[in-house]
Amino acid sequence: MSTPINKATLLNVAINLDWFLGFFEAEGNFFFSVRTTNPIDVRIAFKVTQANKELLQKIQNFFGFGLIQSEGSRSSLEICKFNVEGAKNVALYGIPLFQNHPLNGKKNIERINFLKESHVVKRGSWHSFYKRTSKSSTIRSS
Q1: Domains of the chain, each with CATH number or no CATH
Q2: Which residue in 10, 35, 37, 24 sits closest to 110, CA to CA?
Q3: What's the predicted TM-score (pTM) here?
Q4: What pLDDT, on the 0 to 100 scale, is given for residue 133?
């Protein structure tokens, strides 16, 4: 059984790319969906959800992008997310971040799918992508 890391320890961690990638494997997820509204609505994002807002702010400061947003509260803890969403932001930040940095296990398969979908959205060819797949796609971590 693992010992929980206290808040002070997390706030003292030195954020770097390798640390973030490991943290993302555990706490992050990729999201892509196509909704058949008129017009078709395409959403793409990656995020990290945590009860430690200060840690998410350290991540945001390290990268210089992303939004910190509240997701409400659970068991009297405020739950927040470091969120990067939208075709422009994912193309500018997500593709370069995840392009050359493999993750482990299932999360790496999700990373590969996210990159494929990011390139489709970036090229603006999501209409043909949607017709080929003819269903909504969501990438989620378990």
Answers
A1: 7-133 (3.10.28.10)
A2: 24
A3: 0.77
A4: 53
